[in-house]
Amino acid sequence: MKKLAVALLRKEKVFLQSYSQATTGVWIAWGPVYVVDAGDTNSNQFLDELTRMIRVTLDNSVHGVPHPSQTEWKAVQAPMLEAVGVKSWNTLAKGAKSVGLESEGTLVKMEPSANYEKQGGTSLPDKTVECDLNSPELGSALLKAFEACS
For residue 143, which phi and psi values (nearest 5 degrees)? Predict the structure, then answer.
């Protein structure tokens, strides 16, 4: 079953959030935002924690959640804004890099984006990084995907 998530790198922190498929078929931000401090991206502790949080985030991606009403959309978007500590998506996007995560089975595809600050940017499918969900290199693979963002 397909699972989706997003990873943002902003101000030396990685923010991860699941996306779940609503009963209408639309994918929406879902659940908590996990934050991993990226101060020392070469440390084993950081890479292990990042790998663990990627797995947890993808595991939280589910199907069949209720479709939000018009009045509930702000609540859907609030966890990411609160985790980053900003009030708007424009502020969040400044200086941020975004990678979309998709898994089906044990293959995780990490698709970087360009110009995230411009309405969420443009996907860079030709720069997708792939890694097995069970690989200890999962966190390192996400860092490679962030490096491909522009």
Answer: -60, -40
The DSSP bridge partners found for residue 27 are 21
Helix (H) or strand (E) holding 23: none
Record the pTM: 0.95
Closest among 24, 4, 19 to 66, alpha carbons compared: 24
Q: CB count, 10 Å around CB of 49?
A: 17
Tens-place pLDDT, residues 24-71 = 999 999 999 999 998 777 788 999 999 999 999 999 999 999 999 999
User: Which DSSP string do the residues of 62-94 spell out, in sequence order?
Assistant: -EEEPPPPGGGHHHHHHHHHHHHT-SSHHHHHT
